[in-house]
Amino acid sequence: MLPSVEQPRLRLSLTARLAGALALIFALGGVAVALAALAYGRSAAQQSYDNLLIGAANQIANEITVRGGQVEVDVPVSAFELLSLAPDDRILYAVYDPTGRLLTGYDVLAPRADDATFHTDVLGDEQIRIAQVRRPFAERSFSGAVEVLVGQTTRAREQLAAQITRNALIAAGIAGLVMSGLAVFAVRSALQPLRRIEGDIAGRAPNDLTPLSVAVPREVGGVVATLNRFMARLDRQVGVMRNLIADAAHQLRTPIAALRAQAELAADETDPERLRAAIGRIHRRSVTLSRLADQLLNHALIIHRADSAPLERVDLRTVAIRTLEQTDHDVLGSGTRPELDLPEDPVWAEGDPLSLVEASKNLVVNALRYGQAPVVLSVAQSGPTARIAIRDAGRGIPAARLPAPGERFAGDRGVSADSSGLGLAIVQAVAAAHKGRLSLSHPASGGFEAAIELTAIDHSTEGT
Amino acid sequence: MIRHILAPLAMLALAVQAHAQSPEAVRSFGAQDAAHRLTVRGTTDIVLFGPVLRAFTAAYPQYVVDYEQWGSNDLYATADQACRIGQPSADMLISSAVDLQVRLVNDGCARPHRSDATGRLPAEANWRNEVFGITREPAVLVYNKVLVPASEAPRSRFDLIDLLRPVGSRYAGRVATYDIEQSGLGYLFAFVDSQQATTFGSLIEAFGRSGAIATCCSAEIIDGVVSGRYLIAYNVLGSYALARAEASPELAVVAPEDYTLVLSRAALIPKHAAHANDAGLLLDFLLSDEGQREMTDVRLIVSLDDPDTAELTLPSGSAVLRQIPLSPVLLVGLDQQKRARFLQLWRGTFTTE
User: Fold this and answer.
1) Which residue out of B101, B338, B345 would a mutagenesis test of the A interface target, given it has the greatest number of A Cβ atoms within 10 Å?
2) Is it the case that residue B20 has pLDDT exceeding 60?
3) Dist. CA B334–CA B338, nearest whole Å
4) Can you tell me whether residue B20 is helix, strand or coil?
5) Cβ of B338 and A105 within 8 Å?
């Protein structure tokens, strides 16, 4: 039974967040627009009707004449027709001579001393806006300034202000609706790539771990790249597991079959001497088989580790020393002891010590088993490369058995339990996991050398 | 802070102080024991307006209407005074001196009334929903058909000027018009005339040269024409003239062809009216089909547009009709200096009787 897939913890949806943010923006914008519309409506209405007032006041001022020392005002009808453009507003006017005497009009309008052209007052229960215009005279018989005041109630300007404000708000409202629509569209189209990714993954076969190839915008590109890297690693591990199972099946089948055949032979054997010999062979077979099983499990472990263990700074000299400590010389039965050749300074590289030690152990065991003494385990750094190498005096792996670069060891070539194939496969996997390589060579000084080459951590950057 | 309008017309104030402020006539319509009593002050003759009020009390028997007939200047002066001291006077004021009515509204002495009927009124017959034009009366020329030969019958102001032009014209001293110092309506017609056309200058000049008579009141002027004392009268209110012409066949009524002023008597409800809502009901009645029909019967509404029912022959179309709009523009004519100058011009021209 499959474990139930846990639903991811769901936070507020992106759409909801965007909608919330946009609603907030629109609300604030709406308030700002409303205030602006109100202010604009008021000032526009104020300005247009103030122009009427001042126009009317000027028309009256133009009709003031001085005759025989007397100021005469002939209030023009056109001034009142102008004011009637505010059809429902009451009109007040007054003309004062320089001594402050009312010449004509309403004495409720008192002239103001200050130079302000406009002022606002209250008449009964209505507001009134008043314009004041001064007309100076310098005649022989008369000199001084005549004040003309024209006032009007504010009904029309309030209506106009309300109308302008209303229209502005309607326009802003429509704009808001259109922008909301566009915002919904934008949010949907922005989230479209995520839906495409979802659709792509949902539509895949269960074992399809190829990279996603949907076209996505840059912002989502990182997610897709990470997803693709993750799937590639998964793919590699699945591949490794598949190979491992294939190797194990392949390599265990033959020795187990042989073991069974020998056991069957032994079971039929009646001669005690030959029975003992048969049992001795079965024992040796079992030992070899158990070593092979060990190696297979090690391989699986190391390959898994190599792909998943975090890399740390490691001194390859430590790796070499630990390798020798853990090598089981007696089991090999050759009696040869490897020599160590280490530099004085540490050789730093990034790696997983356990994997590296295991890989080195494999190389040492191979050298001890198939090579010739002396076996030398050396650590060195040359430029950017840190290497841990095992050299022996033998002929090494026959050229025909050396795999092409990148090819997996121990494929279908039927490596035997004692062969070096599986050991080298482990080394190669570890080197690959460290972004390094396994190098097999016949140095000019003779013999055979197998080395793991890694990228050295530069001495100069070695801070800790 | 402006507390109140305290600037009555200087000339008007003098004129008003000279008179005792009292109605010319008073009559009640409707049952005396009716629940609601309305006081209406108007410049319209009781004889003309009575039937309209009778129709109202017939339609609304719970009302009794006291109608007081006033001169237009007195009517204004009492209303203005009542407004200033904040006392209720009448419940409704109906005046042919629409400029004074507009002035009352402009001074904040009226209260608004809104109804379907007022909503239907054209803009020139409704200002601020406070003053309403309820009638439709042309300013006409009348002449004595017996004494004025058909060949000389005036059809326009130009004809009138031409009749007065010859030295020793038999029309000299026998043409009458309103004395605008005494009649608010006369002043209004004269003032609007002066705004309408340059003809007015020539006309005044002709009046002055020929010794035309300025006298008071529609009734006297029309009487004078009927009796033959005057041959022609200018700017007489069409409603009175047409009513009189029914009884006096020698009276001819002419709407001037150059242009005809049309007056709508203005009704308003004073700010401090004691029965403002009832007054609103009366106003709606006056504007209703029934009220308008009643006023058509007494010729307060003279049909001018429809050629079939037109009681006055007009040359063509209604372009020559000049409705006097209820608008603050009328305030110009009431300006102290303007009025003084206008009256001075008038006085220099006319021999008053």
Assistant:
1) B338
2) no
3) 7
4) coil
5) no
Report the residue of chain B nearest A70, measured CA to CA.
Answer: B337
Q: Rounded to whole angstroms, how far apart are CA atoms A400 and B225? A: 150
Q: Which of A77, A84, A106 sits opposite B5 (nearest CB)?
A: A106
Length of chain B equals 353
Measured CA to CA, the distance from residue B13 to residue B96 in angstroms comes to 19
Closest CB to A80: pick one of B107, B127, B329.
B329
Number of Cβ within a 10 Å radius of residue A369:
15
Q: Which residue has the tokens 């048969």?
A: A278
What digits encode the pLDDT tens for the residues B59-107?
999 999 999 999 888 899 999 999 999 999 899 999 999 999 999 999 9
The answer to whether the Cβ–Cβ distance between A74 and B123 falls below 8 Å is no
- B106/A90 touch (CB, cutoff 8 Å), yes or no: yes
Q: Which of B143, B197, B205 is nearest to B345 (CA)?
A: B205
Confirm or reject contact between A73 and chain B (CB < 8 A). yes
H or E element, residue B296: helix B289-297
- pLDDT of A48 > 80? The answer is yes
CB-CB under 8 Å, A122 with B329: no
Q: pLDDT higher for A225 or A207? A: A225
- Touching B: A residues 356-415, CB under 8 Å: none
Q: Which residue of B has its CA nearest to A60?
A: B332
Q: Are B260 and B314 in contact (CB under 8 A)?
A: yes
Q: Parallel, antiparallel, or unpaired for β B266-268 and B213-215?
A: unpaired
Half-sphere exposure of B88 (CA within 13 A, CB side): 11
- The per-residue pLDDT for B310 is 52
Q: Does A72 touch chain B (CB under 8 A)?
A: yes
On chain A, the residues whose CB falls within 8 A of the CB of B5 are: 92, 106, 108, 123
Predicted confidence at residue B4, as pLDDT, reads 39
Residues of A in contact with B195 (CB under 8 A): 77
Q: Which residue of B has its CA nearest to A155?
A: B128
HEC per residue, chain A: CCCCCCCCCCCCCHHHHHHHHHHHHHHHHHHHHHHHHHHHHHHHHHHHHHHHHHHHHHHHHHCEEEECCEEEECCCHHHHHHHCCCCCCCEEEEEECCCCCEEEECCCCCCCCCCCCEEEEEECCEEEEEEEEEEEEECCCCEEEEEEEEEEECHHHHHHHHHHHHHHHHHHHHHHHHHHHHHHHHHHHHHHHHHHHHHHHHCCCCCCCCCCCCCCCHHHHHHHHHHHHHHHHHHHHHHHHHHHHHHHHHHHHHHHHHHHHHHHHHHHCCCHHHHHHHHHHHHHHHHHHHHHHHHHHHHHHHHHHHHHCCCEEEEHHHHHHHHHHHCCHHHHCCCCCCEEECCCCCCEEEECHHHHHHHHHHHHHHHHHHCCCCCEEEEEEECCEEEEEEEECCCCCCHHHCCCCCCCCCCCCCCCCCCCHHHHHHHHHHHHHCCCEEEEECCCCCCEEEEEEEEECCCCCCCC
| CB proximity A91 to B under 8 Å | yes
The answer, for B10 touching chain A at a CB cutoff of 8 Å, is no
Whether A76 shows a pLDDT value over 80: the answer reads yes
Cα within 13 Å of Cα(A58), Cβ side: 8
B327·A106 Cβ contact <8 A? no
Per-residue CA distances from A305 to A203, A227, A297, B182 (Å): 32, 21, 12, 123
**What is the per-residue pLDDT for B53?**
95
**Chain segment B121-154, per-residue pLDDT in tens:** 999 999 999 999 999 999 999 999 999 998 999 9
